[in-house]
Design brief:
The chain is 18% helix and 33% strand. By secondary structure, the chain is α+β, with helices and mostly antiparallel strands. Strand 7 and strand 8 form a beta hairpin. Among the domains are: 284 residues, Alpha/Beta hydrolase fold, catalytic domain (Rossmann fold, 3-Layer(aba) Sandwich), CATH 3.40.50; 137 residues, Neuraminidase, CATH 2.120.10. A nine-stranded mixed β-sheet has the order 28-29-31-30-32-33-34-35-36, with helices on both faces. It holds the Pfam family Peptidase_S9. GO terms for molecular function: serine-type endopeptidase activity. This is S9 family peptidase. One of its GO terms (biological process) is proteolysis. Keywords: Hydrolase.
Length: 673
């Protein structure tokens, strides 16, 4: 987890701002503090409540540790990975085994492993090359079993297998006949499926012998805001998040035989995004809705006092990650912008929220910046839920607005069907610590705000989606936040694409850009999707354009930054993982080659052992060492010299070493080590 501090603004390259008095200066925070491994992360309780697990460094690599609840002195590692680390883990419902996923250098062909916490015995449950494992379900009624989707028969489709955790033996439950996903009930039987429609929607099907019978249709306009959550206790109904016949996704209960739908909870403000289910009764007991912050509402009166107690004690957003099988204790992830995230345990018997651990205690006392909620109007009347972070040391009013404009980074989230949130972001704090205001905008196409808002992004890449970002910059300038000559754009995945769009479609607006794994050519993006995205192709085409039609192909060409390289006027830094299966290395290669052909400077950093973004802390630290100096040249903020921060990384600078101060010397020093 990354955590950062904040710096006062320094004189700008273009425009200006007075250097604050020395006593107001905020110390630079080391990149290793911001982007290194947390001390502990991803805390969990075993389903029976006797053990706790978490990820923590072992010889500098994140591994899984287990201990009796609350006894950190007795914690022992149960994995011993020496590579990129274990990215995620969860408990089997038998409380005997832990399960975790791992790929190879970012290729996203996830294998699922299990480890017996008593004996330490490990096994790869999906030991097949090129296979991507998907967890389809567990049940307390069948301890020691799990249903896993595997695409070894056909790389496009995940068949369902019942896997015995002790022996690692698998038994085929159902072949996937072209479905988006298979639905498993509480008896671990394949009872249904989600089938894609030609238009880009889906049909929920139920299995009857060898037949698949329709239960209900999810129209294309509801596809991104509707989903199946699971079966109720008697396996006769399913719970869904459902936006059909409404704008905001509601929680509903559907008769699986007839499709008759009964609404349970909804909000007029935003989609229901979180649902707490009782793990034994399989009934929803609370829902969470997020506009700026996450707000919980109890559905069962027996839980009302619990959520009142949680709201009173929690600091920042309180996400409920898991519960014990008896629902007596909940794992809570607390996150606020200006502090280290905290894992805590809520005990229903005492209504007390007790800290499990702080993810990075070294951040205590560092000058982190709070985020301020803002809502920015788009030019066509949409409300853009956004967050503004102002560097410490800069005077602000009661609404968090600075007393004078300064440099700003527009930090664009990926997806685009995702969203920015109010909690802690290491990247945001890094930028603020260096002296930049940070603006995060939930542009149209972002998730959580209803189907009209998310669908408003269709065919609007580099058009109205970009206009939302342009409008946000105009708002920041008008509000006195940003110096119009000192605004950078930065982002990962779709955010990287938005960066390339910013420098090619609005070449005078931004002072520079930082793109991480951003697509540059929408034609090649669609043409190179991995096989297991086959059922997702129509949705992607609906969003971007159809390459098989003359009109759609023209749209893809027009909205591709690689075709407008000659418009670039400002510095660009690109970071790419060589094994990225979603936005392949060719996306970065081709725009760099086009810039080279036009003699336009660019700095290109490639990581051979990374995929869609950076997982190894050594690589993350090294890339932000580049971004640190790059942005200081562009925006005039302070920066930490590169020093030894390339050590241990796989960084290859394929172009533009001169674009980052001190990079040539740092690379030479790294080679000598």
């Amino acid at each position: 987890m990354r955590i950062l501090g904040i710096v006062c603004l320094l004189p700008l390259v273009v425009g200006g701002c007075a250097t604050p008095p020395a006593e107001e200066q905020v110390a630079l925070i080391e990149r290793s503090q911001l982007f290194g491994n947390p001390s502990r992360f991803q805390g969990r309780l075993s389903p029976d409540g006797t053990l706790m697990s978490f990820r923590a460094p072992l010889d500098g690599v994140m591994n899984i540790w287990v201990a009796p609840v609350g006894d950190f002195e007795a914690a022992k590692p149960v994995t011993r990975d020496t590579g990129r680390g274990v990215p995620s883990h969860f408990w089997a419902l038998d409380s005997v085994h832990l399960l975790y996923i791992q790929d190879r250098d970012g290729d996203e062909n996830w294998h699922m492993y299990r480890v017996n916490v008593g004996t330490g015995e490990m096994a790869d449950l999906t030991p097949y090359d090129g296979v991507r494992a998907v967890n389809l379900g567990q049940s307390e009624r069948h301890p020691g079993k799990i249903v896993i989707g595997m695409n070894d028969r056909d790389p496009r489709w995940h068949d369902a297998y019942l896997v015995d955790l002790a022996s690692a033996e698998r038994t085929l439950l159902a072949e996937n006949e072209g479905f988006i996903s298979l639905l498993v009930d509480n008896n671990l039987e394949v009872r249904g499926a989600l089938a894609p429609t030609d238009e880009g929607g889906a049909t929920v099907l139920r299995r009857s012998g060898d037949e698949w019978l329709p239960v209900l249709d999810i129209p294309v306009e509801d596809y991104r805001t509707s989903s199946v959550l699971g079966f109720d206790a008697d396996n006769k109904h399913i719970y869904m998040l459902d936006s059909r016949n409404r704008d905001k996704a509601a929680l509903v209960r559907v008769d699986f035989a007839t499709g008759k739908t009964r609404p349970i909870a909804h909000s007029d403000q935003a989609d229901i995004g979180s649902v707490l289910m009782d793990p034994r009764t399989h009934k929803p007991v609370a829902v969470g809705v997020r506009v700026h912050e996450l707000k919980w509402t109890a559905l069962d009166p027996a839980f009302e006092a619990d959520f009142a107690a949680l709201a009173e004690q929690a600091i920042g957003d309180a996400e409920i990650l898991a519960t014990t099988l008896d629902a007596s204790r909940w794992i809570i992830y607390q996150s606020r912008a200006d502090g280290s995230p905290v894992y805590a345990v809520y005990d229903r018997s005492t209504r007390a929220l007790d800290t499990m651990f702080v993810t990075n205690p070294d951040l205590e006392g560092l000058p982190l910046s709070p985020a301020h909620n803002v809502t920015i109007p788009s030019r066509d009347g949409l409300d853009l839920v956004s967050y503004l972070t102002v560097p410490r040391g800069v005077q602000v009013d009661a609404e968090g607005m600075p007393s004078q404009p300064g440099p700003m980074v527009l930090l664009v989230h990926g997806g685009p069907w995702a969203r920015d949130m109010a909690g802690y972001s290491g990247e945001v704090q890094f930028l603020a610590n260096r002296g930049y205001a940070v603006l995060q905008v939930n542009y149209r196409g972002s998730s959580g705000f209803g189907k009209a808002f998310i669908n408003a992004g269709d065919k609007q890449w580099a058009a109205n989606m970009h206009n939302d970002l342009v409008d946000a910059v105009a708002w920041a300038v008008d509000a006195g936040v940003a110096d119009p000559d000192s605004v950078a754009i930065m982002g990962t995945s779709y955010g990287g694409y938005a960066t390339l769009v910013g420098l090619t479609f609005t070449p005078e607006l931004f002072a520079c850009g930082v793109d991480v794994v951003g697509p540059s050519n929408l034609e090649t993006l669609i043409a190179s999707i991995p096989p297991y995205w086959t059922s997702f192709v129509r949705s992607l085409i609906n969003a971007l354009g159809d390459p098989d039609t003359e009109e759609g192909l023209a749209l893809l060409k027009d909205r591709s930054p690689v075709n407008r390289v000659d418009q670039i006027r400002r510095p660009l830094l690109i970071g790419q993982g060589a094994n990225d299966p979603r936005v392949k290395q060719a996306e970065s290669d081709q725009i760099v080659e086009a810039m080279q052909a036009s003699n336009i400077p660019v700095t290109y950093a490639l990581y051979p052992d990374e995929g869609h973004g950076f997982q190894k802390p050594e690589n993350t630290i090294s890339f932000y060492a580049l971004a640190d100096g790059f942005l200081s040249q562009c925006l005039g903020g302070r920066h930490q010299p590169i020093g030894d921060d390339l050590q241990g990384s796989s960084l290859q600078v394929l172009e533009g070493v001169e674009g980052v101060p001190g990079l040539a010397e740092a690379l030479e020093a790294a080679e000598r080590r």
